[in-house]
Structures are given as structure tokens and as C-alpha cells.
Amino acid sequence: MANNQHAAPAPVGGSLVNAVTLSCGVLIALMVAVLAVRFLFGLGAVTGLNDGYPWGIWVVVDVMIGSAFACGGFSVAMLVYIFNKGEYHPLVRPALLASLFGYTLAGAGVIFDLGRWWNVWNMFWPGSINLNSVMFEVAVCISLYIVVMWIEFSPTFLEQMGRHDTKKKLNKAMFFIIALGTVLPMMHQSSLGTLLVVMGVQIHPLWNTPLQPALYLLTAITMGYAVVLFESCVASSAYRRKIEMSLLTPMSKVMLGFLAVYLVVRVGDVVVRGALPKAFVPSIEALMFWLETACFIAPLILIGAETNRRNPAKLVLAGILLMLGGALLRLNGFLIGYETGDGFTYFPTLAEILVTAGMFAIEVLGYIIITRRFPVLPREDVQAAH
Amino acid sequence: MGTRRDFLKGFLASGAAATAGVVASPVLARETRQRPPEGLGLLYDATLCVGCKACVAACKQANNNPAEFSTTDHLWDTPLDTSGYTFNIIKMYRNGTMDVKDQETNGYAFMKTSCMHCADPSCVSACPVSAMTKDPVTGVVGYNADKCIGCRYCVAACPFGIPKYQYDSPTGRIGKCELCRHRYKDGHYSACAEVCPTGATLYGKTSDLLVEAKRRIALKPGVPAKFPRGKLGGPDQSYETPAGKYLQHVYGEKEYGGTQVLKLSGVSFAKVGMPDLPPDAAAAMSETIQHALYGNLIMPFAVLGAMTYVAKRNVKPDDESSDKEGS
User: Is residue B213 part of a domain?
Assistant: First the structure.
């Protein structure tokens, strides 16, 4: 019981119509318009995709990076329930909510990118599935995780709807749902890296390693904590609430621990494979490698000292840098460091960017609506009503 | 303290499971697959190719593909590369004055681009829904549009850039050479080999084609020799012509564990667009990792067991109290 001195979650309240929600509405409308053209006339009508770059930002940003940004729920749940750090409990619901949106949209976003989406049921059809395919593992695992997360989050809705009996019954099985909710992301976040392995020599040596699953899993966990830092601070400033520094400061130390392990594996791998000289060849790949590496190393300097971890501005900056670093690792592996032959270039079209922006707008809008109407964020004595 | 002890137990359990998985992985390592003994394929000999592109036209016809235009008059089928609608193309290498055929400096050469029908194809390993399959007998890498979800992982995976997608259609398919497997029942074989006037593209069992390829690279350049046309082992359509100056390399013999389409050239393969590939297929490494981690779901269940065990200890009191507080 000592774990539960913290305030219970409560709706933030306030109006749902404001500049942010209206902007989100406009972005979502634009996305719907682009998608109408895409489904009527094909992927070529709106995207810059070609056979040299069959995957663009809808896959790499919306799914690979989007789902890694959505690892907050997984990272915090692991901290609270597996490492038994109950004091972080107030962070679970907001983190889980962001993850829920991130993953549900990543899952839905895949459909936009599938050229033959009406056949997608084959992914779950025993006569069609290919157990050797890394993509199969990713798809099944992400689908399952989305369901698991909705169940994990459902007490929030049940509380608001007054269905306490249902909630109590659900809570009896919740430990298993939570365990599933830690194992499934470990599986697919690592596999998202394994996706690169079969591409073989087409991947630049700086990102071409059989250790992909370890690199992608470690960065997904790190990014999960980074996103929680970011979200907590943004939600605090937007809703004019206290920043939960007493939780964020020690959590950022856990984050740095995972970061340190990642850096040892990453740098060790590049050196052992003999790929390091490639980082000193003047090229866009080398530049991006150093940019990516800088984003991972800077937080160690920035918040390595305990006093700096008590500074909210530095924490947020470190969080943003780590989100950027993880995003760059994925962008570099799948697009910058991917070379299938001469004559192909890819740059996202405005239409592609509008869809990606629309997806993020849905996440922001959903987060606002749910935190204002449902018990997600910890209750504060004086609620800001605006 | 019970929690901590349980936590340690769970941690050790999952650690042991992970170690077991890693230790077992060298044993489980999926070796690069070899060509099936009766596997079918093509032998393309760049020194015999005259660049007439009869094979490109025949391929279009055999696969019912529309013409693709790269000139303003839109009169002729002039694809610049393989695409969702062009499964075979002859490309040209040019250097300097282009005086001598099959010569790297001041010369020119041709190269056929089409599916290599790998012994261990990346596209087949990548495809999540078995739309891309390798026939166990003929070894032909075939495509089934009725299963394909259009994820284009095969496009990304292939080191030869072969499977291609039809981006201009809302119902786009993947397009690639299937060695004219749909024409076998009528007694036909690969259209490109059927129409090739010089035997530069030869159809047959890959094991026979490999013997033929080795015979050719052993020939003395300029000395007349016999060259079969059409189908190796079919009706004799051979003719005599001076042997070309071959590189001592049968492309496809060992690349990625071998391919069923083999190539001979006078100009280095890297210069005519054929990638330098290791003898081990990327699919073997990818599947080794996949099965080391997920084989029979042993690792996931071990970790899930450990996590459930730990979570059961840690979740219960927390939820009940928050339930009271929340209501």
C-alpha cells in the first residue's frame, strides 16, 4: 500500500474547442482528402515512392518511428510492474494513452500504404502465413499488442462509465495483460530492426548488422522514457499543472542506464564489424551517422549529473534528443542508408507529409479529448479550467 | 522482501531462457539453401547477345503486359528498366569510343535484367503471406496476386531490384519474371529463350546450364565453337561462331548460394549492373535470427512466463487501492 500515496487520476476538464484542437481538425481533413485520392488512383498518385524506394515516410515515420515513440506505455509499465517501482504509477495512464494512440494509428496507417489492402486478412490466415517472414512477426505482434493495450487502458473508460464490477473482474486478470503488454513490444520492436537483415548488401555498413534486434529494442525502450519526459512536460505546460519532477528525475536515470547499454552495443558493433572507417568517408551517410550518434551521446553530457536531472528544461531537451536519435537510427537504416542501385531517388511529397501530419494530429486530438474527459492524469488540488 | 526475491526469480528465469535461446542458435542456424536438383533456369551469354531485344518483346507478349513509353512519339515499347509491367529488359554498357563489343574500355556490352530465381530468395523469405513462393521442384520463384497485400517488402529485399510494384494503379500488383511457368503446359518454355536468335538466352535445367557455362569460359577466344539455341536438351538448333572473350566467372554459380539464372560476360559484372554478392544468402541470416528468437515460440513464452510471474506479485495491491480511490 505504500506505493499508493499518489493522487488518483481524474479528468482535466475544460473546453474541447480551442486553437490546438481546431488545427488538428484541419490537418485531419487534409489527410482524409489525400487518402481519398490515394485509394482511388493508387500510391503513385500521391506519393514519391518508386521501385528503388518502395517504402517512404508512411512506413518509416508513421510505423517505425511512430511505434517507437509509442513505447512510453511499455517502458513505464515495465518500470512499475516488472521492476516493482510503484512510485511511478501516476505516469502509467498518460504514457499508456499516448502509446495506445501511437500504435493504433501505426496499425491503421499501414493500411494506407498497403498496395493490396483488401488481401490483408492473409496475414492471419493459416494457409497463407509465412513463419520465416520478419514482416509476419511484426504484423501479428503489433495487432495483438493494440488489442492488449486497449484492454490495459479500459479501466479508465470503465471508471468513467461507472462499470466498477466489470473493472474489478478485469483487474483480476490484469497482471497477465500487463505481462503480455511488456513481452509483445519487446518482440516487435526488435523485429522492426530485423526487417533490415534480409535486405543484405543494400544496407550501408554503418547500419548493416545482425544485432539489429538488440539495437532497435534498446532504443525503443530509451525512446519510451524520452517520450514520457517530453509528454509530461508538454502536458504540464499546456494544462498549467505541476511538472512531476520527483518522478521524472529518477526515471531519467533509468533511461540513461538503457542509453549507456545501447551505446556500448552500437559502438562496439560498428567497431567489431570494421565499419567505422565508413564514418569518416565524406558522404551523406557518414554525416547522418554522426548526427544520429551525437543525439545519443549529448543526453549523457546534458543530464549525466544528478543536479542537471532536476532541471526540467534540460530533461525535456535530453528527451527530445533521444527521440530524435532513435528516429534517425530508423530513418538512416531504412532510407538514407538504403541503396538499391543507381537512378533512384526519394523525397516525400507534400501529400505524403500531410498524411503523416494528419496522423500525428489524430494522436494529439485524441490525447486532449481523453485527458479532458476521462481520468488519466493525476488529480490536482486546483484544476485549471480553460 | 518477498517481492524482491520473486523479482530476482523471474529475472533469473527469463535470463536463463534468453541464454538458452542464444546458445541454441548456432545449432539452429539456417544454412543458405542450394538450388533444387531439377531446378530450371536460363543462361545469358552477353558475348552472344546482339541487343535485338526480341526477348523483351516476346516477354511482353507472353505476360500480356502493356507497352511502356520513354519517347515522345509513343510509337514503340521503350521501357528504360524493368517495372511492374516489364519483366525483362536488355541494358547497354557504353564506354569511350564504343569501338569493340564486350570490352570494358572504349567498348560496349549488353546485359539482360530479369529475375535470377535465387536458390535462397530474399523475396520469398520476406513475404509475410506466402504470395511469393519457390517451387520445390522447378525452383521457379512465382507470385500470387490473390494473396499479395502489396507491402512491397519483396521489392525492398531483392538485391537485384526485381520484384516491382505497379504504383499507377489502385489495385497494383507485383510484376516479375516467373520463367513463363504458365506456358509449360502448352509445350512452351521461357519466351525470351524461345525467340533469341543467337542463343544468348538459353533455357534449361540449371545444372546443365552450369556445365555449358563452364565449357564456354574454357573456350579459346576467337576460335569457332558450337553454341546451342532455345532449349538445352531440346531439338538441336546449334550453330558455329567464334567464342567470345569471357571473364572467368559464371555469375549466379555462387552468389547468395547460387541462382538458377546464370550469366556470362566480357565486361566486369559490377559495371553491367550485377551486384557483388557474398556466398551466403541474406535470407539465411534473417531466418536464423527470426527462429533463434521465435522458434516454436520458446523464448516469447519463457519471457512471458517470467513477466507474468513477476507482474502477478506487483500488480494486485496497486490496482485494488486505485480502484477504491478512483470510485
Answer: yes
Q: How many helices and strands in chain A, by DSSP H and E?
A: 13, 0
- Tens of pLDDT, residues A65-92: 999 999 998 888 888 888 878 888 888 8
Q: Do B192 and B274 lie in a common domain?
A: yes
Is B265's pLDDT higher than 80? yes
B65: number of Cβ within 10 Å? 18
Whole-prediction pTM: 0.89
Q: CATH number of the domain at A2-372, out of 3.30.1490.100, 3.90.550.10, 1.20.1630.10, 3.30.70.260?
A: 1.20.1630.10
C-alpha cell, A272:
567489431
Q: Would you say A346 and A49 are in contact if contact means Cβ atoms under 8 Å apart? A: yes
Could you tell me the pLDDT band of residue A342, with boundaries at 50, 70 and 90? confident
How many separate domains does chain B show?
2
pLDDT in tens, B98-111: 999 999 999 999 99
| Cβ neighbours of residue A359 closer than 8 Å, sequence gap 6 or more | A31, A62, A66, A105, A109
Residues B71 and B186 in one domain: yes
CB contact under 8 A, A199 and B303: no
> Closest to A341 (Cβ–Cβ): which among B129, B149, B161?
B161
Amino acid (1-letter code) at residue A314: K
ipTM: 0.91
Query: Is there a contact between A216 and A210 (Cβ–Cβ < 8 Å)?
Result: no
- Closest partner CB to B129 (pick from A8, A39, A130): A130
Residue of A nearest to B303 (CA): A183
**Cβ distance of B323 and A164 shorter than 8 Å:** yes
Asked if B14 and B306 count as a contact pair (C-beta separation under 8 A), the reply is yes
Residue B9: give the domain boundaries: 2-32+285-310
- Round to whole Å and give the CA distance between A131 and B130: 9
CATH number at residue B250: 3.30.70.20
Is B321 among the domain residues? no
Q: Are residues B212 and B297 in the same domain?
A: no
